Amino acid sequence: MRCTGSRSHVVCSPFSAKATTPICRAARNVGPASSEFSHGVSQEGGIDFPILDNPSILFNLLLGKSIKLVEITLPELSFNFFYRQSFPIIGPLVGTFAGGFSAKLDLRLGYDTYGLQQFIATGNAADLIEGFFFDTKDAAGNPLPLATLEATIAVGAGIDLGLIKAGVEGGITITIHFSWDDLDGDGLVRFSEMAANVLANGGNPLAVFDIDGDMQLFLRAYVTIDLFITSFTLTFEFARITLFHFSVPFNRPSFLGTLSNGVLTLAVGPAAHDRIQGSLNDIGESITVSVLRGGEPRDLQITVGERPRRS
Description:
The protein is mainly beta and 311 residues long. It has five helices and 19 strands. It has helices at 22-29, 50-53, 59-62, 114-122, 191-200; strands at residues 2-4, 11-13, 33-43, 46-48, 68-73, 76-90, 93-105, 108-112, 132-135, 147-160, 164-180, 188-189, 209-226, 231-247, 257-260, 263-266, 287-291, 300-304, 307-310.
């Protein structure tokens, strides 16, 4: 190994048997490394027309409820990078250091009759936008984060036999989920809900999400088989323990009233549970309703005590 260059820049070459600097001697003792990188579509998308699949949902219109007209599931996009470096200890025994990062994006959106119903009631064409929604669940009804990020770091020991490498390692994984915040709990997030969350948090655009995650400790074993033209790795996880769970706090506005067909219904008394957020108890309260300055008659401000809330 030949080393050339100044103190701040060293180039190590394998064509020399001598290594005259600590940097080159360390480089000579580093074993082989392996890395994996994948990206692209990890799950196909699709388009659903709920009325065609289940025409009976049309009866919900007679009950004043909205129904989905179309729902689009975009293909799941993901990427994954993983790197493992080995360091010779003695003979085939090696120490390992590994790290990785992955991310995936899942998006379901659609249009229902809610915007049309609001438009018929108010005559305001802007209400048609309220028919657009983002779904917080997948087709099976399971929670569906919009984005998931995961970072991993691990150390371990193993045996390097050339074509076969095996070892055990332990490490830490941090996973972060970005999920739509559903203010009214109906499983659908509309632009008005996003706007309310952003305004309630001083214009912070991240407030449209529920951001939470976990830090976990894991122990696993792996076997890598090299077939010259390709290689594959098998992983066996022995244990995984959650060290702690974390979340990012945001202010969530309450629904203190609903305006429909010119009638304002306050979420007070027995209907206090309709607020979703804040105090849901049926207690004595001071309620003030006023029209916002410069706004239309439908732009109301509802105040409970000293805290103003939008309807």
